[in-house]
Design brief:
mainly alpha; Glycosyltransferase; three-stranded antiparallel beta sheet
Length: 472
């Protein structure tokens, strides 16, 4: 498993090897200097707290030979006041520098009342997807309408379950403004791509259904209004095969468990497996001594967990937040543990010590491999390459209702705003006309994966809804 550092401008990830996620340098990254980290820490601590700390320290160490307590109070007070002013100005300067270096992602840079760029981006994305939809007459499955894994693949590009499921999600998010593309045809295609034994798999996984792909497809079909009875049969097949005994690799993967949990919350919100998956995810949280022992997540839910990962923590927060809305978090100790883990994960994301937050290490993209033994030959492995658009996941986690609740309750609204602005700036920088690009490893060629465009559009749309305030 390797990780790439996110730089300014279009995202250009670079593979750096195998193994658990770890920070990796990139030639485009602007390093964060120790003074910037100190100022960010000081601003987060609070100018008033810093000033008071200086006052207390000086008052306790000034020698008694100084003429009277009044003089000691005066010296300590002036020093504390000076520290307060310096910290307040430095933190304000750092925030201004961060805001100035980040691309505008909302109407703040526009004249009052002027429309923002987001509708144009949505329209351009819709046009691109309509123009590049693939329609293939398949001798086995019939007429297929959808997309391959990435836009612009060599023709003819046969639609895949993953590409078409993400395309359907995008169409549902954009609202399908007219009839150039039928969501009904996309739904029919996904059903036709179902494997003979039920379920779906990615292109590299062969003919055996896998829970993360099946849950992704089921979630898209459920959003599009597929038959509950037909969905239920596939949900049962998915959950029956997704046990620790039958799929130990998947059960120990944070990515796989969160993907299955999110998909089943859409397709089967009353499934008995949902509390089990939520508990497994909550129990897989780890303590990070570098961030006040707050709980977060690595790439695995069992030892070895791997290093604390902003990407996997954000995925866990999003999944647990959705589970909280569907299942609730009251009434038993297991639900309470899930809530405590989710809230700690939010605090952990808000405690990033680096700045500016549009290029900080927490936004580094990841490349992950999910290796499973093949059932027909256990000595060989099936490998699923998974690339993660980290900035979009952080934005979605910080836009969750639970994140705002924590920020308001604990006085962390400034931290939430700064980190959310940075994540959204990085998301915005990765798109061209509503399509997101992922650089090929060790190559100048760029891919346009459907999943990345869905995640980018989803993050921007969620932010626009979150920011909307009617006039009057």
């Amino acid at each position: 498993m390797s990780q790439q550092q996110l730089g300014r401008g279009p995202l250009r990830p670079r593979q750096t090897g195998t193994g658990p996620p770890s920070p990796a340098p990139d030639e485009d990254t602007v390093p964060t200097s120790p003074p910037a980290r100190f100022v960010g820490w000081l601003g987060g601590l609070g100018a008033a707290a810093a000033g008071y700390g200086v006052f207390q320290f000086l008052f306790s160490v000034l020698p008694g030979s100084i003429d009277g307590a009044t003089a000691r109070y005066l010296i300590s007070g002036v020093s504390g006041l000076g520290t307060f002013v310096a910290a307040w100005l430095a933190a304000g300067l750092l925030r201004a520098r961060t805001a100035a270096s980040a691309p505008a992602v909302g109407p703040a840079a526009l004249a009052p009342g002027a429309p923002g760029p987001l509708p144009r981006v949505f329209a351009a994305a819709y046009d691109s997807l309509v123009e590049q939809v693939s329609v293939v007459e398949d001798p086995e499955h019939g007429r297929l309408t959808g997309w391959p894994h990435s836009l612009g693949e060599d023709t003819p590009s046969r639609p895949t379950p993953v590409g078409t499921a993400y395309g359907l999600h995008i169409m549902l998010d954009l609202g399908v403004p007219e009839g150039r593309l039928s969501t009904g045809e996309l739904v029919d295609t996904l059903w036709r791509l179902r494997l003979p034994g039920g379920g779906w798999s990615a292109r590299s996984q062969g003919s055996e259904a896998r829970p993360e792909v099946t849950a992704l497809v089921l979630g898209a079909l459920a959003r599009a209004g597929a038959s509950a009875e037909r969905l239920a049969a596939e949900v049962d097949r998915c959950t029956d095969g997704f046990t620790r005994q039958l799929d130990r690799t998947g059960h120990e993967s944070t990515h796989v468990v969160t993907t299955v949990l999110r998909g089943l919350l859409r397709a089967a919100p009353r499934s008995e497996v949902l509390p089990v998956l939520r508990e497994a995810l909550a129990d897989g949280a780890i303590s990070d001594p570098r961030r006040d022992h707050l709980r977060c997540w690595g790439y695995r839910l069992q030892p070895p967990y791997g290093n604390p990962s902003p990407l996997h923590t954000a995925q866990a927060v999003v999944a647990l937040d959705r589970a909280a809305r569907v299942m609730g978090e009251e009434g038993n100790a297991r639900a309470a543990r899930a809530r405590a883990a989710r809230e700690d994960g939010i605090r952990w994301l808000l405690s990033c010590p680096d700045a500016p937050h549009d290029i900080c290490p927490d936004l580094a993209n990841l490349h992950e491999e999910v290796r499973r033994p093949r059932t027909d030959d256990p000595t060989r492995h099936e490998v699923l390459n998974v690339r993660h658009f980290t900035a979009s996941w952080l934005a979605r986690a910080l836009l969750s209702p639970g994140a705002l609740d924590i920020a308001r309750a604990e006085g962390l609204e400034d931290e939430l705003r700064v980190r959310l602005d940075g994540a959204l700036a990085a998301v915005w920088a990765g798109q061209t006309d509503g399509i997101w690009l992922w650089g090929r490893d060790d190559s100048t060629e760029q891919r346009r994966p459907m999943w990345m465009t869905y995640q980018g559009l989803s993050a921007l749309r969620a932010h626009a809804v979150w920011m909307y305030q009617p006039h009057g």
